[in-house]
Amino acid sequence: MKPEEYFHSLFKSISDPSRIKDGRERQIISLVQYAEPMSILLHEGTIALYRGQDHLLLSNAKAPFIIGLNLLFPDNGDVYIQARDAIRYEIIPRNAVEEIIRKENLWEQLAYIFMYNTKNFIKHNFATTGVSTYDLIRNNLLALMNESDELRSKTNACDYIHERTLLSRSGIMKILSDLRKGGHIDISRGVLLSINTLPAKY
Fold it and tell me: Hey, which residues does 57 pair with through a beta bridge?
């Protein structure tokens, strides 16, 4: 479960309403233009987090959420975000975040947020590392089904799996087609409607 109370507590201390901006759906937000490490606070909406070098989709995240909290990273890293819908966000220098955390003793909030992110990372790692192509597709179908109804209704299943795995679209489409014909999944116009049963093997 997401520790939202810890996100809200941290946001209450580090947020400045004058910095909050509105973002439109599909807008890309990058930190490459900043010389110093920055943090992004997501106040409203849903974003996708991508790895810059190959545009691999790392995760989708719903507000409240914060990116760029690791005080050990010397830069902003090779990541960017894209708005999945209308969002409200804020960009703040990481050293300012660190100063407030130290001053107001917000280490418990930080720890719970890191534990939440670590749990999600481990879950994603188990689902994607050292598994077969079919298992990658199967695991990502399950992940897509667990996304919000609003996000899933606007997401092409093949695109979702491709962005998260970089598998070939033709290979993904072949397996999705076979699963649909077998009655294992319901897909309409590329949108995953439901999962009935997914076979353990393909």
Answer: 50
Task: Inform me whether the pLDDT recorded for 28 exceeds 90.
Answer: yes
Q: What pTM value is reported for the model?
A: 0.85
Sign of the C-alpha dihedral, residues 114, 117, 119, 125? negative
Q: What are 2's two structure tokens?
A: 């997401």
For residue range 75-118, what is the model confidence (pLDDT) as tens digits? 888 899 999 999 999 999 999 999 999 999 999 999 999 999 99
Q: What domains can you pick out in the chain, each with its CATH number?
A: 4-127 (2.60.120.10), 132-195 (1.10.10)
